Amino acid sequence: MKLFKVLTIWGLMIVMFVTSCTKKLDTKPIDPLVTTSATLFDNPAAYKQFLAKLYGSLALSGQKGQFGAPEIQASDEGTTCFLREYWAAEEVTTDECLNAWGDGGLVEYHGGIWSDNNLYVQLMYERLFINIAYTNEYIRDVNAKLGGLTGSLKNDATQYVAEARFLRAYFYYCAMDMYGNCPFATEADLPGTFIPKQIARADLFKYIESELIAIQPTLADAGANEYARADKAADWALLSRLYLNAKVFTGTDRSTDCITYCNKVISSGKYALHNNYRNLFLADNNSYRDEIIMPIAEDGVNTQSYGDMTFVIHAAVGGSEDAANEFGIASGGWAGNRPTNTFVNKFADPSGNTDKRAIFYTSGQTIPITNPTVFTQGYLSAKFKNVTSTGARGSNDTFVDTDFPLFRFAEIYLNYAEAVLRGGSGGDRGTALSYINKIRDRAYGNASGEITDGQLTLPFMIDERGRELYWEAFRRTDLIRFGLFTGGSYLWDFKGNVPNGAATDEHLNVFPIPASDRLLNSNLKQNPGY
After folding, report:
1. Per-residue DSSP letters for 229-253?
2. Over the stretch 272-315, which tens digit does the pLDDT of each residue have?
3. How far is the C-alpha of 158 from the C-alpha of 153, rounded, in Å?
4. In this structure, which topology does domain 10-254 adopt according to CATH?
5. What is d(CA 163, CA 146) in angstroms, rounded to the nearest whole number?
6. Residue 407, strand partner residues
7. What is the pTM of this model?
């Protein structure tokens, strides 16, 4: 949480977005006050400073780390941040979240009626590809300098490039998942000299896979890197996620490979389930490296944004909740997001007295939800808070300290069990059952929540993933993998934009390529159904 202060590297950003006919973008300027890619790395500290910028792009909107220099233009700067857009795409479109603001774009998200002009579809797309552009520029420029470096700086810079490639692979994974066939560019493609071509989803899968495998030897060992930076375990975790969804992305099941990489994380011996589930989502969750493999780092002083965990926490607070004392925020909350009744009912006892993962606020809230814009209808999620495990408030009443768990160990257990059920080799049902029961033992505080072998089924797994991982930006992808996101076999409140839910068309399993980019890039073909 405290280690990443995103630094202003404004000079290089100017160079990155200049469209030029010349390929000599590394030409040294006459004016010594002008910074370009040729001079930026004259300062050895810049290698790590710009790497911090790449990590910062997971949470922040612009160069200042706060306001006034956004990289993407929008009426609400907070909506241009990666985490806010990714969270909305994965959660508001599903049974795990219903938004109360009446914002047309979010109504379309939850109702499954979005188009290629939806603002949130566009902003997510723009954020992904601007972040990819940053990683490409960093990889290109640092690789060009490596031959002239020696000693520890060369070793560090080589590892930094591997981490940048990991982040690029992660952003491309998100793009492949959400948009299918995407525009594609790497460090080999100089800015301003080409129009990106569209890559087929299956080919992008192969690229992501090859990148993640190629960088493994250069990444830090599992658990050995600085907090919130990628290491081998983060790489293995992303590969396990990639392979678990491979049939959706490529048509070929890769459950065996999923198990292989789950086993790598597990056998590293660096991770375990933290003994208190609720503490994993509080303002001092940076202390729990036993379970959180890699987070998006947050800090109320140094990562101020309305598009990171500040959004997730503030938008969940309203009604009669005590925003200051219970959630550590002073604004009273934004009264935006809460779970659907359908999702709350995944917990047999939503009070949290039995399954401690049922972290809902019910006082003053009514059931059912008949009007999505009335925030006091439906239970509220109190999972993420800006207070510590000792009850202290975060460092800032507005901007939160709570890190977002991008990869955590419980997901690895869940991935392993599901891959076994889908027929993968390298694992077995007995081990899968033991992993699931470890998760449930923590949830219940004892063995009362354990299941039997006969209860370990795929329908059980999709519900258990929801109970364990809700509001951690998994749900849309999970429901698609199980064939439940579209169609009529599984309905939830306001799916299909009707109160009791209705079937939706399968073309919604991918978002459209935004109309704005198709106007600029003639190489792009729209996804079917849009």
Report:
1. S--HHHHHHHHHHHHHTHHHHHSS-
2. 999 999 999 999 999 999 999 999 999 999 889 999 999 999 99
3. 8
4. 1.25.40
5. 15
6. 294
7. 0.94
